[in-house]
Design a protein that fits this description.
One of its GO terms (biological process) is DNA repair. The chain is of the alpha+beta class and about 200 residues long. About 40% of the residues lie in helices and about 20% in strands.
């Protein structure tokens, strides 16, 4: 599996970019290749998903790791292939998509190319609750489970992890500042509980 490609960005066209490294040019398919335009002829690191089938091997590239993760999750949904997943990523930010899934907003989801009501409901069924656990450090697994008697120190640690998760979804420091204050007032819960509450607050603000 090719996790990422780092090298010189040599060409860019409507559907892909080419990165040269070690004398090899890798064609990388992208939702919006022009996001990389500022790096033309310079070194660039692109997070990649290596799609392998009997009749096809392709590299799909993303500027952010969470975009790659969402792409991989979308491929697990029945009725969505690489082209469909790429089309979704080309028209929405990760936070917006996560919010739509968590709120079960199938009307919003059917706005994406090739997504009907049946596929939208399938996305909600398959993805709800699975997208909010993307933390910046993949090796740092959440070990603080729900309990009523969290100490103040433990609760601060859980809230801190939830805030970092929201930042990883694309929200800014300014946006999550208000959320932190509200979460500190909330009842004890797990990191996932607080992230869900945070997303709801951000959608209302």
């Amino acid at each position: 599996m090719i996790s990422y490609v780092k090298g010189q960005l040599t060409t860019l066209d409507e559907g892909s970019i080419t990165i040269e490294t070690g004398g090899i040019g890798y064609e990388v398919l992208c939702a919006n290749p022009y996001h990389f335009q500022d790096a033309m002829n310079n070194e660039v690191k692109v997070h990649t998903y290596h799609y392998i089938r009997e009749d096809n091997q392709s590299l799909y590239g993303f500027k952010k790791r969470e975009d790659k993760q969402l792409f991989a999750q979308l491929l697990n949904v029945s009725g969505i292939g690489p082209k469909g997943a790429l089309a979704i990523l080309g028209t929405v930010s990760v936070p917006e998509f996560v919010s739509a899934i968590e709120q079960e907003d199938d009307k919003y989801l059917t706005k994406f190319p090739g997504v009907g009501k049946k596929t939208a409901r399938q996305m909600i069924l398959d993805l709800k609750g699975k997208l909010i656990v993307w933390l910046p450090d993949e090796d740092n697994e959440d070990t603080l489970f729900y309990k009523e008697d969290l100490t103040s120190k433990e609760k601060r640690a859980v809230v801190d992890d939830a805030i970092e998760a929201l930042k990883a979804l694309g929200y800014t420091e300014k946006e999550v500042k208000f959320v932190r204050t509200e979460l500190e007032k909330a009842k004890h819960g797990s990191v996932d509980d607080y992230v869900r509450q945070g997303l709801q607050l951000l959608m209302k603000s």
